[in-house]
Amino acid sequence: MHGPATSGWLLVALCAATGAYCLVRMRSCSGEAREAAGGEALMGLGMAAMAVPAAVLAPPDWAWVVYATVFGAAALRALWPARRSTHHLHHLVGSLAMVYMAVEMTSGAGPHASHAAAGVPLLTGGLLAYYTVYVLRSGIRLIPVPAPAGGAATVSWGARAELAPACRLAMGLAMLAMLITL
User: Fold this and answer.
1) How confident is the model at residue 98 (pLDDT cuts 50, 70, 90)?
2) By the 8 A CB rule, do 112 and 104 touch?
3) Buried b (16+ CB within 10 A) or exposed e, 151-170
4) What percent of the chain has pLDDT over 70?
5) What is the domain count for the chain?
6) Domain-embedded: residue 151
7) Distance of CA 93 to the CA centre of its chain
8) What pLDDT score was predicted for residue 88?
9) In the chain, what is the straight-line distance between the N-terminal and C-terminal CA atoms, in Å?
10) Is 95 in contact with 147 (CB distance < 8 Å)?
């Protein structure tokens, strides 16, 4: 992505840590929760790879085609379950946003070079609005609630209920940052 190298590396670290945690979470859940964790791991690790600062490591042109193909396949996979679940719908939007960013990055002159005088393209603006609302809603859901009486049981890192929403919030913020630099 384009932008300062320091913020790019921080974004890489955040997305990689989130993706790695989602892989750990996959081991401690099953069914639809495991599938969601897998989708989030793909998204986090893919975002980490795409966020590597271009000034440090410029990916070859074919890498953007690979990103678009992988996230296009993820979007197709999320298409059918998105009918019954807003979480899968969010995965669909996220995968399509990644495809959009990969396609935009394939242009040699830089992202939105032809749109410089026209302002922010409509699709980018729509995605920015979507992720802004998503981040605000996710942040509100992280407001702590009183713990149930009876003491806290020891829970593995992968099964901690409060970490999954925090990871979703982190990935939403990372997506906002990536869309802004687009």
Assistant:
1) very high
2) yes
3) eeeeeeebeeeebbebbbbb
4) 81
5) 1
6) no
7) 10
8) 77
9) 7
10) no
* Rounded CA separation 34/93 (Å): 19
d(CA 132, CA 127): 8
pLDDT for 29 beyond 50:
yes
CA gap 93, 4 in Å, rounded: 26
Beta strands of the chain (E only): which ranges?
Answer: none
The amino acid at residue 32 is E
The range of the structural domain enclosing residue 39 comes to 5-145+157-181
Tell me the one-letter amino acid at 135: V
Dist CA 31 CA 162 (whole Å): 19
- Which residues, at least 6 apart from 25, have a Cβ–Cβ distance to it below 8 Å? 37, 41, 158, 159, 163, 164
State the amino acid at position 139 in one-letter form.
G
The type of residue at 80 is: W
Closest by CA to 182, choosing from 126, 102, 87, 108, is 102
pLDDT at 160: 62
pLDDT at 66: 92
- 125 within some domain: yes
